[in-house]
Structures are given as structure tokens and as C-alpha cells.
Amino acid sequence: MCSRSSTPPAGRDHPGRDRPGREGLGRDRPGRDRLPSLTGLRFWAALLVVLYHLTRQAGEVPVLGDLTRYGRSGVTFFFVLSGFVLAWTYDGRRVPTRVFLWRRFARIWPLLAATTALSVAAWAALGTEVSARAVAASLLLVNAWVPDPAVLRGGNPAAWSLSDEAWFYLIFPLLMALPAVRSARGRRRLAGAVCAGVVLVWTAGALITDPGTRAWALDYLPLTRTLQFLLGVVTGLAVARGWRPPVGLWPAAALVLAWHLALVPWSAAVPDALWYGPYSASQLLVTPLFALLVAAAARADLDGRPTGLTGPWALRLGHWSYAWYLLHEIVIRLAVGRVPDTPLLWLLVLTTSLALSAAAYHWLEHPAERWLRGRGPGTTAPKQPPRRRPDRAPQDPAGAS
User: Fold this and answer.
1) What is the rounded CA–CA span in Å between residue 254 and residue 346?
2) Cα distance between residue 192 and residue 180, in whole Å
3) Collapsing DSSP states into helix, strand and coil, what is residue 246?
4) Distance, CA of 387 to CA of 372 (rounded, Å)
5) Quick one: pLDDT band at residue 154, thresholds 50, 70, 90?
6) Residue 153: what pLDDT?
7) Is the pTM value of this prediction over 0.70?
8) How far apart are CA 245 and CA 260, in angstroms?
9) In this structure, which of 96, 116, 338, 380 has its CB flanked by the most CB atoms within 10 Å?
10) Measured between alpha carbons, how far is 150 from 202 in angstroms, rounded to an integer?
11) What is the DSSP string of 6-72?
């Protein structure tokens, strides 16, 4: 998405026009899996984050620990994916802003509330006090705007990313209305600006001397992360209008893997506390690679090409990924210190947290989302429903969490 070929020529840039004769794998699937490879990728991004926390909090496993030390970059993947899926889903659809925001609330908040309560209970069991201010900031989705670590990670530490997502949801209708986003030339320029912007944001870390403040400003602050969401938006619109990424899915995945491999010697040479260390770079500079990966996976689905990411278990694990993201750190917190063997601790955390995530998805997350959506604005069917376009999801999918 960083080259001038990132969007189709202006003459082909028409809302709702997809490539003719292309029937993707998702045409006979439920709305949330119309691009099933994206659902499958969600599990792998969540796994990257889970292994990152295990590496940092539970001790390293040889080789795997080196590869996952900067697995927090999986959050960047989710921010790019969120922009992509929302743009893909709502492009050309007239959905009132209040309806859109209610759908997003129904999607993320019930499980956030439940896991925040569980996290606070876990802190209490471990003898750690959590302030009411931190819990309120998590539940109100504003904790990422506060540089105080006690507030930022006090309720449920994983919930900071939902604060960023809430900001993305607020600005999404405005982004979609921008003339630059609606034109091929504008998207090309925006994509180039984002690619340059993530580099500038990273180098701006040299101006912030305090490591804690720098980490908050570059890694948590929603304004900084907006670049990742924006690149997802313009990528989603480009693919919707027929853009074909320059590489396929597996070459794109290889580029992401190569990036994480490059972080291993970087980490050995430069401490994370320095602005040019690999910590912030791992999350910022990977943004274009994740956009390429998401675009390649979506394009493969639309072309009907197998990806290995669309089987029943791949989709099931993808559906559980949001709950897994919110629950796994709580399990790690309770398990550390109780299982002395590190590989066994990893296995215990992975299996337990994934099982809990499956239960949370089927018994809380999905039922609560359906219940809230059925009682919010926009539940009455319009007299003349909008015409459905080929290869498009009729509802906002779970991939945009």
C-alpha cells in the first residue's frame, strides 16, 4: 500500500463496483465470515500477543521466546484489520452514525465489562489494589488517553487497545466522508503519507527523554495508532475497487515473519529503553506489512483461492480470538509462580485461556452482542432495504474488534 500502484486507476474507482466474475469463498458463508481468511488470521495475531505476554511475564522458551519477544505487534495487525473490515463492510451503505456506534458498542463492551470484573477479582486474589478510577477508565474506554500506568493497565491491562478502537469508531464516519478517502488518487497519497508517518512517529521518540512517557505516546495513545487504522481503511477501499496487492498471501506472511526475525539481532544490539530500540519500532514500522497481509488474504478469498485459513477450526479459533485477547493475561497473572516449569506453564496457560475464551464467546460475547443489537437503534427493517453487492458482508463482521 506504499506504492503508487496501491489503488486502481481513477476511471475504475466507482463505489460498489467489484471485479466481475469473481465469486469468493465467502459468498455462501454467514456475514461475519464473508472474507474467511481474515477470520483465520485473527487467531494467529492473537496467538502472537499471547506468546508475547508469556515471554515477558512467564519466562522464555528457547527459540520461540526470541521470535515472540515483540509479539505485541499483533495489536497493530488488529488495528489495521479493523480499518479494513469496517471500510469493506460500510462502503456505499447508508448506515446512521448512531446505529454504527451502537453495533460497535454491542460488539466490544459486554465482554470488556465481564473481563474487567474478572481482572479486578484476580488482582484482589493476588493482594493488588486497583483504583476505582482505573476501573472506570477501562469501562468508559478512555484509559489509553491517560499516561498514568495505574490507570492505563489497572482494570484489565489488555483493555487499553479497546480505548484506541473506541476512538477509531468515533472518527470512522468522518474518515469515510473525506474526499481523499473517496478517490483513488487520494487513497494513494494517504497510503504513502501513512507509511512515511509511522516512520516519523517512531523517530519522534528521540524527542521524548522519559522511557515511560515515550512508550505511552508511541505505543498506547490513540492519536498515534490512528495511522494504522487509517491505512486499513484505505486498503479496504482499494481492495473493494479491485486492487490486487503485488504479492500473494504467503509471500506477505513471509515478509511479516522476516520482520520479526530481524528484531532478534536488533534486540541484542539495542536496549528497548532507547528510542531507537526495537520495542516501539516493532509495533509502528510493521504497519505496511500487515496492510499487505490483510489485502492479500482478502484478495485470495475473492478470487476463490485456498489459503489454509478457512477451515471450520480456523474460523472457530478466529471467533474466539477477541475473548482470548482479553482473558489470557488474567490467566497468566494467576498462573505465574504456581507452575515452576516454564514450558509446562506455557502449555497450561495456552490451553486454559483458550478453553475459557471458547466458553466466553459462545455463552457471553456472541449472545450479548445479538441481544444488544436487537434492542438498539436501526433494528426495524427499512421499507426499501439497500441492494446487496457481490462479495460484501451484510453486517459488520466480528473481525473489526
Assistant:
1) 25
2) 12
3) coil
4) 25
5) confident
6) 85
7) yes
8) 21
9) 116
10) 25
11) SS--GGG--TT-PPTT---GGGGS-GGGSSHHHHHHHHHHHHHHHHHHHHHHT-PPTTHHHHHTTGG
Quote the cell numbers at residue 314: 480456523
**Sign of torsion, CA 307 313 318 324?**
negative
Rounded distance, CA 62 to CA 396, Å? Answer: 40
Which three cell numbers, joined as nine digits, stand for 284?
509502528
CB 224 within 8 A of CB 201: yes
Taking Cα atoms as reference points, which of 160, 162, 156, 164 lies closest to residue 329? 156
* Three-class secondary structure of residue 323 per DSSP: helix
Pick from 176, 158, 201: which is nearest to 353 by CA? 158
Share of the chain above pLDDT 70, in %: 86
Q: Which amino acid is at 69?
A: R
Burial (Cβ within 10 Å: 0-12, 13-18, ≥19) of residue 187: buried
130-149 average pLDDT score: 94
Give the cell for residue 133.
Answer: 478510577
Name the DSSP class of 91.
T
Confidence tier at 11 by pLDDT (50, 70, 90):
very low
- pLDDT tens, 191-246? 999 999 999 999 999 999 999 999 999 999 999 999 999 999 999 999 999 999 99
Spatial separation of the C-alpha atoms in residues 46 and 48, rounded to whole Å? 5
Each residue's pLDDT tens digit, 327-361: 999 999 999 988 888 999 999 999 999 999 999 99
